Amino acid sequence: MKNFNNIDERVVDDLKKELKAQSKLKIAAASFSIYAYEELKKELEKVDQIQFLFTSDLFTKEKAPKEKREFFIPRLNRESQLYGNEFELRMRNKLSQKAIAKEAAEWIRQKVTFKSNISGQRSDNFMVVENKENINVYAPFDEFTTAEIGTTKGEKLFYNISKFENENTQQFLNAFEQVWHNQDYVDEVTNTVLDNITAAYQENAPEFIYYIALYNLFGEFLSDLDQDYIPDERTGFKDSKIWSLLYDFQKDAVLGSISKLEKHNGVILADSVGLGKTFSAIGVIKYYESRNKNVLVLVPKRLKDNWNNYKNNYKNNPLAEDRLRYDVLFHTDMDRERGESNGIDLGKINWGNYDLVVIDESHNFRNGEGTTHKKEEGVENRYQKLMRKIIKSGVKTKVLMLSATPVNTDFSDLRNQLMLASEGDSSNLTKTLTTKKTVTEIFGQAQRAFKDWSSLETENRTTEYLLDMLDFDFFELLDSVTISRSRKHIEKYYDQSDIGKFPKRLAPINESPKLTDLDITYNDLFQFIDLLNLEVYTPLKYVYPSKIEKYTDQAKAGASSWANREKGRNQLMITNLLKRAESSIHAFKLTSERILENIRLKLQVIEEYKQSKNGIVKSESDDFEDDVFTVGQDLKIDLADMDYQSWEKQLVADKYVFTELLDVVNRITTEHDTKMATLQELIFKKIDNPINKGNKKVLIFTAFSDTADYLYKYLSTQLIQKDGVHTALISGTRTESTIPGRKNDFNELLTLFSPKSKNRDALGLDGEIDVVIATDVISEGQNLQDADYLINYDIHWNPVRIIQRFGRIDRIGSTNDTIQMVNFWPDISLDEYINLKARVENRAKLVAISSTGEDTIDNTDPDMEYRKKQLETLQNEVVDLEDMSSGVNIMDLGLNEFQLDLQKLREKYGDYEAKPYGIHAITKSDSNHPAGVIFVLRNRNNAMNIDKQNRLHPFYLVYIAENGEIISNHFNPKKILDDMRYLSREKSVPIENLVQSFNIETLEGKDMSKYSNLLNQAIESMISVKEEKDIDSLFTTGGTTALENDINGLNDFELIDFLVVRGE
Q1: Sorting pLDDT into bands at 50, 70 and 90, what band is 64?
Q2: What is the distance between the alpha carbons of residues 17 and 933, in angstroms, rounded to a whole number?
Q3: Helix axis angle, 439-454 relative to 472-481, nearest 10°?
Q4: Are the C-beta atoms of residues 297 and 307 closer than 8 Å to each other?
Q5: Beta carbons within 8 Å of 669's beta carbon, 6+ residues apart
Q6: 586: pLDDT confidence band, cut at 50, 70 and 90?
């Protein structure tokens, strides 16, 4: 009898002596590995036959039912040991698996029979080698692996395997034969084993490799998909009319929203502008209504008709047969206790009885507790009322929020909206998440990171940089409670035939007409504005310090906030004058006249006071027709409490400036208004030469009602006279059209303007409007995609607004092939324009009143370089909202879409268990995806992610180019997954020519040295990045990661799969 400890005496060496040409081999062991076959290949090829008995129930047809799966993990582990156990990782990482598997499969077909023990009873593990002259038994021989034969280190502390010879072997032989031939005890599994092994060398489709990566990365997500959170299809909501009208990407949003609402009680649907969020939301509403739930939709007043239409029994309602019954109220109704709104009696409404609240344009609630400036005791704002009346009282209320811009200035916007879903108590949300930190801590960290990021130099302020600074848990939170896809995303990942196309955006046309053909320029106007002090709006500044309390008390806010408020108001007025000068000479003139009148009235009061010693002035700001700055209430100030003489001096100075200014401006009559003439010419040209056949429609936006009135008054007559073209005016102050006898309801006018998208014919309406002149009351939430030509008559200072306007015609499913945006700019260079704005904005840093009454600089971006970049972009191309916002777009952050992909692919490919890892596919490179490899790895020890920076730990993705350069490192998994998804999209069979050239290059997988080297380099890159970050962490607060355990390299990682990106 001989013993083997696999150190100085190894089983493998003995087997090499004993295995001969006529040998028969009988093995009873728990698992089989192709790498052990590889070690003994020469000898095993000679052997006559092999009988292999799996001593536990492996590879049999009876699979474990789903819910019992965890008890069978050992079994699955054993099954997957065909491709090597953990200690054979190193071999697998040499990428030779494919070649070995191919040879092993061939050998099995010729010589091996596998059976599996199904008796439920345990058996000993041993191996018998029968030769003509002798019989040897090795026992215990637990597994046919490289560790058990002694070529790699195994997981056992020590090995003690005995070799029995001749007369001592009979009992082993008898036992083996007895079990092998008894059908009640064993099941033949050779074919199953072969299937599994061939999986390791067959050619794979890129899509399949992407699926395996997702299956590993988001496996937990699949286990979350239990019935509790999956929409219950028995409700029949998929048979509804709305469901039949949704595009695939909208259906995904509906299902995703429902499962998030069920799990977390709230979700923000933040799909980009023009992607039909309203329809997606109605899909969700239909689901809850079909379960007999009550639904309330809260909308901005101007969008009420959209929502009312879909539930009413109207001819033009495409969803009439769904009989939707949700209530529609306005955001502002939250401030009202009684009265009627949208046909509902607010006094009688049972606020606590809504199971679901849908908030359209939910960013209007982003300021949370401080949504309005009225911070008086006992006065609740909208946000607080919504929380108290609807969400906290009565039945449990789920909240679906719709917004294309949930993050405006920073992450607190997002937090406030999410708080609605958790009844104002963040711990409710924390309970449903799988994060390590609480929601409060997560947002605290995110806010700090955002602040640090905002103070970086412009060139460093990239999304990548921010992603790097944010915490792992923050992404987890976003994935749990938001769904957001961009237009690019939808175009890239959904089938175009299903979604209809987006129209092609033509490059913007930029017009910079002169102010007038007289010798007056924009700069002349700006010089006048520069001379103004506008102290007419800041009487409080002149109140004696001893009297100030009289007035600040009235406002019930700290004294400082009134003074700041006035400073801010003065500032806003100057900015507004400037914006009006930019918009139209008419608006500028009207406003100047109003302010001059105000100054005269104040001077009159002062004159009277000098006579009678009696006079009150009001601090007000209604010289602008738009609601620019609501201060709460006007303040009445007694002149006796003021240094009115100093104030009077300032007023007189402004009076002279305005008088002179108006003398100049009044010379510019309509005939001399070059900007208006340019607009008219553009419209006529467009009507005569449409960009889409027969389409005369033009949509003109301006920020000011005064300008809109002026344009309408002049252009509508011109257009009727020229071509019989009808025009409509839609502004906050009035609605009108040139169609006689038509009631001026703005939704009806928009229906005549966009008859297809608004279903005009079903309403039995007739008439056609081709030109609409509008203010921003219709810049959100309207679908006007019949139009193909949009003019910004003035450039809004917030570029996001420009994109929202364009979103009215830039919509999915548009019947136009191309669409055009035209921007009007002042006749000065972009640099002058930016400097002018900077000067105005910095003249007295605009002080916004924050909800706490502290001084906070308003979010007018002080970083002029950045603003310039944005405006330059606007001149050259029409961009998506997510490319424009200076902050962060949540589309850059979530991994949600990959989970949806996983769901779809799983239906196609089934569960991926007991199948080989380390497999690959070949896909084609292109200009954005250079030749190289994307490796998907699993880390075997936790050293790698001490600093919680990799949001997918223990999984690591690296995209490395053929020359060893890292294209995307493991801190950017979203980018790499995006690449993988793109490179494997619609590639569900292997790509013949690429596979062929790869196999020639690697000698059918026998020489994988090039790719092994790349794998090593990829892993080394991760280690070096970690060391770099460790060193950084020595110098930052919050502890270091430098002294914590290291990664040693290849053996710490297991290769899940890889995608080879190749040129033709």
Answers
A1: very low
A2: 42
A3: 110
A4: yes
A5: none
A6: very high
Q: Which residues pair with 279 in a beta bridge?
A: none
Element housing 455 (H / E): none
DSSP 8-state secondary structure symbol assigned to residue 299? E
Structure confidence at residue 276 (pLDDT):
82
Instruction: Identify residue 590 by its one-letter amino acid code.
Output: L
| Lowest-confidence pick of 14-18, 381-385, 641-645, 1030-1034 | 1030-1034
Residue 427 has pLDDT above 90, yes or no: no
pLDDT by residue (tens digit) across 503-549?
888 989 999 899 899 999 888 888 888 888 888 888 888 888 888 77
DSSP 133-170: S-EEEEES---BSHHHHTSS--SSS---EEEEEGGGGH
pLDDT in the model for residue 337? 77
Pick 70 or 443 by higher pLDDT. Answer: 443
Report yes or no: 1052 and 939 within 8 Å, Cβ to Cβ.
yes
CA distance 810 to 891: 19
Distance CA 1058, CA 961 (A): 13
CB-based contact 10:149 (threshold 8 Å): yes
The CA distance from 659 to 948, in Å, is 65
Tell me what pLDDT residue 553 has. 55
With a CB cutoff of 8 Å and minimum separation 6, the contacts of 583 are: 702, 703, 704, 706, 707, 793, 794
Cβ contact 78:55 at 8 Å: no
Q: Give the distance between the most distant pair of CA atoms in the chain.
A: 137
Of 638 and 555, the one with more pLDDT: 638
Give every CB contact of residue 240 below 8 A, 6+ residues apart in sequence.
286, 290, 322
The pLDDT tens digits for 982-1035 are 899 889 899 989 988 988 888 887 788 888 888 888 888 877 765 665 555 444
Comparing 84-88, 669-673, 903-907, the range with the smallest average pLDDT is: 84-88
Residue 339 CB partners (closer than 8 Å, separation 6+): 346, 347
Residue 1042 has a pLDDT of 38
φ and ψ at residue 281, rounded to 5 degrees: -65, -40
CA 776 → CA 302, 773, 878, distances in Å? 11, 10, 19
What are the start-end ranges of the H helices in 482-555?
487-493, 496-499, 522-531, 548-554
Burial of 39 (0-12, 13-18, 19+ CB in 10 A): buried
Residue with tokens 């001096």, as numbered in its chain: 649
Tell me how far apart the alpha carbons of residues 270 and 274 are, in angstroms, rounded to a whole number: 11
Beta-carbon count within 10 A of 360 CB: 24
User: Is the CB of residue 898 less than 8 Å from the CB of residue 214?
Assistant: yes
> CA dihedral defined by 69, 75, 77, 82, rounded to 10 degrees?
-130
Q: For the packed helices 705-723 and 674-688, what is the interaxial angle rounded to 10 degrees?
A: 40
pLDDT beyond 60 at 186:
yes
The C-alpha atoms of residue 114 and residue 132 are separated, in whole angstroms, by 23
- For residue 452 the two structure tokens come to 């640090």
CB 355 within 8 A of CB 293: yes
Tokens (6 digits) for 560: 């400082």
906, HSE (Cβ side, Cα atoms, 13 Å): 19
The pLDDT value given to residue 53: 93
**d(C-alpha 844, C-alpha 654), whole Å:** 18
User: Which residues sit opposite 820 in a β-bridge?
Assistant: 789
Q: Are 710 and 587 in contact (CB under 8 A)?
A: yes
Considering only residues 387 and 784, tell me which one the structure prediction assigns the higher pLDDT.
784
Torsion of CA 1007, 1013, 1019, 1021, to 10 degrees: -160
pLDDT of residue 1038: 41
Strands 135-139 and 161-165, sheet pairing: antiparallel
Tokens of 789: 């030509």
User: Which token pair is 1041?
Assistant: 């990661």
- CA-to-CA distance for 465 and 863, rounded, in angstroms? 18
Record the tokens describing residue 939, joined without a space: 């880390």
